[in-house]
Design brief:
The protein is α/β, with parallel strands linked by helices and about 725 residues long. The radius of gyration is 31 Å and the shape is globular. It is an enzyme of class 5 (isomerase).
Length: about 725
């Protein structure tokens, strides 16, 4: 394979990312050595880049096998918006269009070609010959590779024909990719594709940004309506078992005022395509669908996936829930579980004259039921199913959340265990607690008062330390000796906490009902919320003009970066995720201008250098002001009797900008604030400044009545600065 570019260069200039995730770089380098690969990576983990980047690093075309037309179109649209020459071949195209694509292949003008398996290696054997003689592929990528396996949850017989690839192209590397494959499926993929010299790359199946819930199905509709009301404006998918169920539920939701539509294989193609397109463009917020919807849908801003009926297996459930939060932002998966669904699915699992396949399907269903009924961490159950170890507590599933008294007490546990160890495991609970509390009692030996653990527990009352020590005993982290006067002993579990960094979660001594509705999965970085919403509107406007889904222009996470780092010059855009060279040229200026206007209107100084990928909030500070002609013009017009709104209209500026101009003169003492802000408003703002400080305009705005503007706040701050 002849290299024409470096992977890191392609990642930055084409896709707009500064670094690879997980083991993407290792996979890419492996392929560039012309070796085969099997990649197991969760949905949203970046599988596509594993073959798209090497495709652009070498001469020739990369042929991608994809199971669905929708997936092909989505991928090609995304690549085209990044300036990559890509196309797909499928049965929906006019013969003249297909011939045009073949001509592009002959002229070596395409870097990626998406095809269905039956077109690549089916009755049309001439296509393989065409590739051999005229296109000369550099790489074959098999997406959704689990479809080739009878053990997979979505077996497709047409995928079996791909076994021909290694026969026809023994020297061309093959990469097989899937988000869901157990050990049997993985083995079958390798055997069916006749891979010989290969390496398996497995990533964690964990999706830390998704919170999992299982709820009782009985009378679920009212709870569903409440949930959707709370998530107004978010995009989501609701899965049902049958076509009729999707129609009924979608109609009920529309009657209740929700922007919803049904999607299933029984609808005519034009209707399916239209509804999918409207959903991708955010014109339909909720799709109520059978599993016919979703494979390969790369819509990155799906905030929730709801299962109104029980999925048939863990693989399908995991893949479907993985359509939420592909942009990495917090999202939810909700499943309504009822015993009636289990009986239905057991009937569906009966495969006539194939007891072996029936047994496979029933076994997978049993594991799905066990997931719904488990009392352990649901994330742990999912990860264990795929052969991955996981802690007992994740804090981001309902079984963990609904134990509000269970919290991370690792430091508390380490203090207790350290005390036990320092006194050579020769004392009981009371002595250890007194030692931690720094008791002055004579019963504490003098040499023990010199220990580092003496007095390190003064922050908690004696009863609390006693409680946590007993908790450690009941959880097996400590044990009591069998002597007449029992003493505390360490166990293997306690050694893992002391020396291997294992976390400890314990029950609080007092039962407290949590008011937190959902866990904090990770600390959401600070961002300008109003700017973020405006950037979304700008993106949607562009998407409608170009007739593509909004997330293909830029993802929500890219907009979040814009609203966090606040870039002011074109060079900064290259440091924002998702902005490659092509997108900077095509879309950069409108987004940059919106950020600049926002910073000007809100007096936000963002001179701090962008340092990606660290998510550091740029500091909002009062800019270093100087008098300018434009400020002086606003002052003169105001003194001439014009209102702020009238000045803004005459000068074609926003009222916020005019208020910023006048703030400069208020701070200098050249303009009296009394004529600008009513006294009652000013009193409220001054009270908020005393409470929250003056560093963050956004925090002040969010804690004041809606009618108080950023301009009002800036003027009040300016007056305070002048008085100081």
């Amino acid at each position: 394979m002849k290299r024409i570019a470096a992977p890191a260069e392609i990642l930055q200039t084409v896709f707009g990312y500064n670094e690879f995730r997980h083991n993407q770089q290792e996979i890419i380098e492996h392929l560039l050595r012309a070796e085969d690969a099997v990649v197991l990576m969760p949905t949203g983990g970046g599988k596509s880049l594993c073959y798209q980047v090497p495709a652009l690093c070498v001469e020739g075309v990369t042929v991608v096998v994809s199971p669905l037309i929708a997936l092909m179109k989505d991928q090609v649209d995304a690549l085209t918006l990044n300036g990559v020459k890509a196309a797909f071949l499928n049965s929906t195209q006019h013969p003249s269009e297909r011939e045009q694509i073949l001509q592009q292949l002959r002229r070596n003008e395409l870097k990626l070609l998406y095809v269905a398996p039956e077109r690549l290696v089916g009755s049309d054997i001439n296509f393989l010959q065409f590739l051999k003689t005229e296109a000369k592929p550099a790489l074959f990528a098999i997406d959704e590779a689990h479809c080739i396996s009878q053990w997979g949850h979505d077996f497709r017989p047409e995928y079996r024909v791909l076994s021909e690839l290694k026969t026809q192209f023994p020297e061309i590397p093959v990469i097989a990719l899937t988000a869901t494959a157990d050990a049997l499926t993985k083995k079958d993929i390798i055997e069916q594709l006749h891979l010989k010299q290969y390496k398996v790359f497995e990533n964690s199946f964990n999706r830390p940004n998704i919170t999992y819930y299982v709820k009782p199905k009985k009378s679920y509709y009212h709870e569903l309506v409440d949930y959707l009301t709370e998530h107004e404006g978010d995009s989501g998918i609701i899965y049902c078992l049958s076509r009729n169920a999707t129609e009924r539920l979608a109609e009920d939701l529309k009657q209740d005022g929700f922007n919803a539509a049904a999607y299933h294989a029984g609808l005519d193609k034009a209707t399916r395509d239209q509804r999918q397109d409207l959903f991708l463009k955010d014109d339909i917020r909720i799709i109520v669908a059978t599993i016919a919807f979703g494979m390969g849908i790369n819509k990155s801003n799906v905030r929730f996936v709801i299962h109104a009926d029980l999925p048939k297996n863990i693989e399908g459930y995991y893949q479907e829930t993985g359509r939420a939060g592909r942009d990495g932002l917090p999202s939810e998966a909700v499943l309504f579980y009822g015993a009636g669904d289990v009986m239905k699915l057991k009937n569906f699992a009966q495969v006539e004259n194939n007891p072996a396949q029936t047994k496979i399907l029933l076994d997978k269903l049993d594991k799905m039921v066990a997931f719904c009924e488990t009392k352990q961490c649901r994330r742990k159950y999912l990860l264990n199913y795929f052969g991955e170890q996981s802690p007992d507590y994740c804090g981001a599933c309902d079984t963990c959340i609904h134990k509000p008294e269970l919290s991370d007490q690792t430091i508390v546990a380490q203090k207790i265990m350290s005390a036990v160890a320092r006194v050579n495991e020769k004392f009981g609970i009371g002595y250890i607690v007194d030692l931690l509390r720094g008791s002055a009692s004579e019963k504490i030996r003098a040499e023990h008062k010199q220990l580092s653990v003496y007095g390190i527990g003064k922050d908690k009352p004696k009863d609390e330390w006693t409680h946590y020590t007993r908790e450690l005993l009941s959880s097996g982290y400590l044990q009591m000796s069998d002597a007449q006067y029992p003493v505390l002993k360490l166990t293997e579990k306690s050694k893992a906490v002391l020396f291997k960094g294992e976390k400890v979660y314990l029950h609080a001594p007092i039962q407290v009902v949590s008011t937190v509705k959902e866990p904090v999965i990770y600390q959401q970085h600070a961002y300008e919320k109003a700017l973020f919403e405006n950037l979304k509107k700008l993106r949607n406007k562009m998407a409608h003009e170009e007739n593509v889904p909004a997330y293909l222009i830029l993802s929500d996470s890219s907009l979040m970066d814009l609203a966090t780092y606040l870039p002011l010059v074109t060079d900064d855009l290259a440091k924002i995720s998702g902005f490659g060279v092509y997108k900077i040229e095509r879309y950069g200026q409108p987004f940059l201008e919106m950020v600049q206007d926002y910073c000007n209107e809100n007096s936000i100084d963002t001179r701090i250098e962008l340092k990606k990928p660290k998510r550091e909030r740029r500091i909002a500070a009062a800019p270093r002001e100087r008098e300018t002609d434009t400020k002086k013009t606003s002052l003169d017009l105001y003194k001439g009797g014009m209102s702020i709104e009238a000045i803004a209209a005459q000068r074609v500026l926003s009222p916020n900008t005019i208020e910023s101009h006048l703030s400069y003169y208020v701070a200098k003492g050249e303009l009296d604030i009394d004529g600008l802000i009513p006294a009652d408003k000013r009193e409220l703002i001054e009270a908020a400044i005393l409470k929250y400080g003056k560093e963050s305009l956004r925090q002040l705005k969010e804690n004041l009545p809606e009618e108080i503007s950023y301009g009002d706040i800036k003027l009040t701050l300016a007056a305070a600065a002048g008085e100081a």
